[in-house]
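Continued from yesterday's entry.
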Amino acid sequence: MKFRLSCLLILAAGFVAGCVNAPITQEYMIVSPHTIVLPKGDSVSAVSITHSCTCPFTWTSTIAPASASGWLQFPLDTTGDHPSIPIAVFPSRMPADTNRATITINSNSYGADSIQVVAYRAK
């Protein structure tokens, strides 16, 4: 009986030790590119927002400064991975020759990231 109990304890310790050494997979959001430059006359570009696992994925966005939402169009929120999300600008609504904005992406549990947008007004 003592032999069986000892074998079971050693076997159980081996399983626990195996679990401790298992690799930990980091789950994260992937935003690309982080900077978009739209030269004069260009009005559309695209970004990719995905994540590293098969878990549920949602995100929301904010544009700063808030006044940039008048010349910059980007989805406020969505569900799932999107490899090609359009970013549109409207040069006729831009207040200056060079316009800058930051789009902040907040995900449900994969952190936050941002996209810098630089757009030039067409003359």
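--- second protein ---
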Amino acid sequence: MKKLLCLIMILGAALGLKAQITPVLAVKPDNSDIITQIFGKNKELLLSDFLKISPFEMKAFQAVFLEYETEKRPWLTERIALLKMYNEEFTSIDEKKMNSLTRQIINNDLEFGRLQMRYFRRINKLLGATRTAKFFQLDNYLEQSTRAYIQHQLPFIKELESDRQLFTHGSKPLTSR
């Protein structure tokens, strides 16, 4: 259910983009700068602190983590490219192209789920069930935070802004204009 809600949010934000390229979509596919901006630490340090990885476990964990992040990079690159495509072509996109882009976004999320499943088994062997669950909880939280950060930077189209209603205490709804 959470994944469906996240997908709806992504599609809603992507569909509501202006027809110009926004600077936030030029982010690096590894999202490391965004995570550092949001949390003040890089992802590896956040994970190490959160999971309480011992020096003995660190070398093996770093190897698996690096492989995971390397395999995840094309997924992130594709997701950003799809958002750029929506952003650049929104005013001229037809039904066929919209259908194709929506399917690509859904497939992109499915691929990410399969990637996580493959690495779940490997990380579980290294860290055990509880810390593996914590790893994916934090990894998903960082991904969602990054998505929210990017979506927050993407403006909605004027139609959505003009239809939005503002409510005040006990009074009738007012339009935003």
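The mean pLDDT is 74. The first helix runs from residue 2 to 15. Will compare against the first tomorrow.
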